[in-house]
Amino acid sequence: MQLLQQLVNGVSLGAIYALIALGYTMIYGVLRFINFAHGDVFMVGSYVGYFAATVWVSHLFPVGTLPNTILVFLLAMVICAALGATIEFLAYRPLRNRPKLTVLITAIGVSLFLEYTGQLVFGPNPRGFPAIIKNHPIVHTASVTIDTVEVVVIAVSLALMLALRVVVMKTKIGTAMRAVSFNQQAASLMGINISRVITFTFIIGSALAGAGGVLYASQYPSIEPLMGILPGLKAFVAAVLGGIGNIPGAALGGMIIGLVETFVSGTGASTYRDAIAFAILIAILVFRPSGLLGKREIEKV
């Protein structure tokens, strides 16, 4: 196994998982439920990237040029953000004061709706994702090869995570998000518009999932309507591993899951890479339910 090569591959994959995991953890932090439709928003991001690159933007800028790539990312993020806001408004807002189990079942229903609507609209067969990032080796030695796609995936992921950090920690809406996450009722009494904060949380989380979908499809260029299931579940595992509700924890968990999966594949045991990810979930729930960076909380009944 080439240790350095697996490390680069793992960081690249982990950065994508981290982007998706941030959506899970932000929504859980604000609403205290798991949005299982988040992985399917990631899938929609890939398809938006596909059509943006090949149809909507290609007549203005050829595929593979910088303007085309930037517009593909922006369109994927904007449309996924709008999709996330629509899902929150239509599916989750009417159930805001209902039992968590009701909302959880609704999330599964929304996930299935997106998957089967995707099969109806896009067709069940895989499509080859266009090369929106021209791929060529930047570093090529006997022990490691680093190409442009991996560098762009890592750089864009880190930039988006840093931007999210700035929004959450340095802006007024970010302060409101943290207040709602801490105590929704007290935040409401302080004059914070809870609905606006929740909608904004869905918008940010879904935009990150859209960017993650384009990055994932650029690295693994085959997309299909059910492609969001497994990466979505692994991102959920990453969020739990880092401490769901904790934004730095989600980023850390994504990196760990990406590295573990890549190193397991590098040993020749790729058959077990998915099983090991879920074994990590079971282990973290048994030995440290609050996750690596999460705080232990007492659930009121």
How is this fold's topology laid out?
Layout (H helix, E strand, L loop, with lengths): L2 H29 L6 H19 L9 H27 L7 H23 L4 E2 L8 E4 L4 E3 H23 L1 H11 L1 H6 L4 H26 L2 E2 L5 H14 L4 H20 L6 H15 L14
Antiparallel strand pairs: 1-4, 2-3
Helix pairs in contact: 1-5, 1-8, 1-9, 1-10, 2-3, 2-4, 2-8, 2-9, 3-8, 5-6, 5-8, 6-8, 9-10, 9-11, 10-11
List its salient traits.
single chain, 301 residues, mainly alpha, two-stranded antiparallel ribbon, 11 helices, 4 strands, globular
Please provide a brief summary of the model.
This protein has 11 helices and 4 strands. With 301 residues, it is mainly alpha-helical. The longest helix has 29 residues, at 3-31.
Describe the structure.
- The chain is mainly alpha-helical.
- Helix content is 71%, strand content 4%.
- The strands form two sheets. It has a two-stranded antiparallel ribbon with strand order 1-4. A two-stranded antiparallel ribbon has the order 2-3.
Number of helices: 11
Helix coverage percent of residues? over 70%
Residue fraction in strands: under 5%
Which ranges are low-confidence, i.e. pLDDT below 50, for 5 or more consecutive residues? none
Major sheet characteristics: 2 strands, antiparallel
Spatial arrangement of strands, main beta sheet: 1-4
Calculate Rg over CA atoms.
19 Å
Mean pLDDT: 87
Termini Cα gap: 50 Å
> How many strands in all?
4
Q: Pairing-aware structural class of the strands and helices?
A: mainly alpha
Order of helices and strands: HHHHEEEHHHHEHHH
Query: What would you call the shape?
Result: globular
